[in-house]
Design a protein that fits this description.
Blueprint (H helix, E strand, L loop, with lengths): L2 H15 L9 H37 L3 H16 L1 E10 L4 E9 L4 E4 L11 E2 L1 E2 L2 E2 L4 H8 L3 E3 L11 H10 L6 E7 L5 E11 L6 E2 L3 H45 L1 H23 L12 H13 L9 H4 L12 H27 L6 H29 L7 H11 L2 E4 L2 E4 L3 H7 L8 H19 L10 H6 L21 H16 L11 H13 L5 H9 L2 H9 L21
Antiparallel strand pairs: 1-2, 1-9, 2-3, 2-4, 5-6, 7-8, 8-9, 9-10, 11-12
Helix pairs in contact: 1-2, 2-3, 2-6, 3-6, 6-7, 7-8, 7-16, 10-11, 16-17
């Protein structure tokens, strides 16, 4: 039993214990005493009811986390407690030094503006200062500046304030503004953060407009104090959330500065992940029909998408942006070109020496000269072909078959005399890099890149995520895992992979395949990307249900129109047809 209920029972027990018949033998006095006691009882119960109601309102205010709903609730509860016909709430913008209209409610005019409603307030904000001087002419700005409660029985008879606005409103609508109660909402630092303005208190029995009583003034002041605390808490939560998102986006910006290709990637993965999540929630048929992500789960997914590549902060730039196989801090193919140019000069010099020896003979054989020129030309042509083949192997789009690797090693085994010693055409490290069968990364570099997933998990585990966001590190760190367990960093299998990580995997792969801003590859056409992902689905690398939804719903085409070059969109996907034209 609450303390309020105990107090109420105590009042009743005291009153019941009074034997009115023994109070007085005078019937008139006895009747009067009964009336007084009854009145006291009603007053006590009314006070207890108000206290209980205020306590309930306080609990409601403290539990509401949506600022728009909270502002609506503050005005509604204040009006209900004071029997006010209308109410307005302003918040203080300290930077602009003005009162901002947030809520306008009026039962008589059936008005609901601001807050959670679709109708917005178009009235101008109230300045706190005019030409540098305090604006005491407006009652709301006066209350904000002085932190004083203003209780006016009739605004048409009040002096000292400018009520032009209410009078214009009355003239335009036929409404009659009369009693007004204006209360500053002060936070824990005793600073005004808003103004609660109530209009036209009503007699609960007759409905007539009456002044706001001192009793209501104290009650609403208490409510305003609670409301200010609740509003401050909610604003702090919103500000912390905004700060957290700004921090996350600043990290994405840092990655963007480190690699301009990755920064765009992060934004697009967030966009695509949320598109896919929303499509899941819309789905009413198929294996995903029973799946629904609530707001907290969507928030976790959004944050995980923003943070999924945070580990790349630790990845060297020359690995992230490696556009060809020989590139490290710079493209080493230029060194090989210079080396081959020196080889060519050395070959020419050698042949010239041989030609000079022939010309120094008493008898010069023109055939020998011509044969020597032919041999030099052929040797230089072979050298040039070898260099062109090396350049081809260095390309990111060149797949290295066994035959090509064998030919590359034949070239590498050749030598040329340079500066008095024999130099190999290619050293072992160059051969190793040029022999990369697919892409531009060797095994060591690929491990460095893959380590970003481990680092993402490690970095995010250090952050004290609140309960509702506690899964963000796990979702973000698992975006390279595969259903068959061949992914990284942990080799998770399908039962261990949450839906959010599977969504991130689809978004991450599709963006990487179709990205138009990678320096190391040409952007892939839509049909080719979908076909590759279909093979990944069949190999159990990605979630088959998510893939089917992604393709069959046309979501991939919707993304393509937003983020891909028009020439990449070589097929329009509609219905249940995939990029190859086959029914799923």
């Amino acid at each position: 039993m609450s303390s309020h209920d105990q107090a109420s029972d105590l009042y009743r027990s005291i009153l019941l214990d009074v034997d009115l018949n023994h109070l007085s033998k005078d019937k008139r006095l006895n009747k009067l005493l009964k009336s007084v006691i009854t009145e006291v009882q009603h007053y006590a119960e009314n006070q207890i009811g108000q206290i209980k109601r205020l306590s309930q309102v306080g609990l409601a205010l403290s539990s509401e986390k949506d600022i728009r709903k909270l502002l609506d609730l503050i005005v509604s509860e204040a009006r209900d407690l004071s029997n006010a016909d209308a109410g307005t709430l302003y918040t203080i913008d300290k930077k602009k030094q003005e009162l901002c209209f947030e809520i306008m409610q009026n039962d008589t005019m059936k008005t609901r503006l601001g807050g959670t409603g679709s109708a917005k307030i178009t009235l101008p904000n109230v300045p706190l200062y005019i030409d540098g001087d305090p604006n005491y002419g407006n009652v709301s700005s006066f209350a904000a500046l002085t932190q004083e409660i203003v209780n006016i029985p009739d605004v048409y008879e009040a002096d000292g304030f400018d009520f032009t606005g209410p009078r214009k409103y009355d003239a335009a609508t036929g409404y009659r503004s009369k009693s007004m109660l204006v209360i500053p909402m002060k936070n824990h630092e005793n600073t005004s953060i808003g103004i609660l303005q109530l209009l036209n208190a009503q007699d609960p029995e007759t409905g007539n407009i009456i002044p706001f009583s001192n009793e209501f003034e104290e009650l609403i002041a208490s409510l305003a104090s609670q409301a200010a605390v609740a509003l401050t808490n909610t604003q702090l939560i919103e500000e912390l959330k905004a700060l957290f998102y700004a921090f996350i986006k600043s990290i994405a910006t840092a990655i963007d500065e480190k690699s301009p290709y990755t920064g765009g990637h992060i934004r697009r993965v967030v966009y695509l992940s949320m598109m896919l999540a929303e499509k899941i929630n819309e789905t009413q048929t198929g294996p995903l029909a029973s799946v629904s992500l609530n707001q907290e789960e969507l928030e976790e997914l959004r944050l995980a998408a923003w943070m999924h590549d945070v580990g790349k902060i630790t990845t060297p730039e020359h690995v992230v942006d490696k556009s060809c196989k020989l590139e490290t801090i710079f493209d080493r193919s230029k060194l090989i070109e210079t080396r081959f140019q020196l080889f060519a000069k050395s070959i020419e010099t050698d042949f010239l020496r041989r030609k000079i020896k022939i010309l120094q003979k008493k008898t010069v054989d023109s055939f020998d000269i011509k044969e020597l020129d032919r041999e030099m030309k052929e040797t230089l042509q072979i050298l040039e072909r070898d260099l062109e083949f090396i350049k081809t192997c260095n390309s990111s789009g060149q797949f290295m078959s066994d035959e090509k690797i064998s030919h590359l090693r034949e070239i590498a085994s050749k030598t040329c005399k340079l500066f008095g010693r024999q130099e190999s055409y290619l050293n072992e490290e160059e051969v190793e890099n040029l022999s990369i069968r697919k892409g531009t990364l060797d095994a060591k570099e690929r491990k460095i890149v893959e380590n970003h997933a481990t680092m993402t998990l490690k970095i995010l585990k250090q952050l004290p995520f609140p309960r509702q966001l506690s899964h963000v590190p796990d979702y973000a760190g698992a975006h390279h895992e595969k259903l068959d367990g061949s992914g990284y960093p942990s080799g998770l299998v399908d039962k261990e992979l949450p839906l959010q990580s599977r969504i991130l995997a689809i978004a991450d792969i599709f963006e990487a395949l179709t990205a138009r801003d990678r320096p190391y590859k040409n952007p892939m056409n839509l049909s080719q990307a979908i076909t590759i992902m279909k093979f990944m689905k069949e190999d159990r690398h990605i979630d088959p249900d998510l893939y089917d939804l992604f393709v069959q719903s046309g979501l991939c085409y919707e993304y393509a129109r937003q983020e891909m070059n028009p020439e990449q969109i070589d097929v329009e996907l509609t219905g249940a047809t995939d990029a190859t034209g086959e029914d799923e």
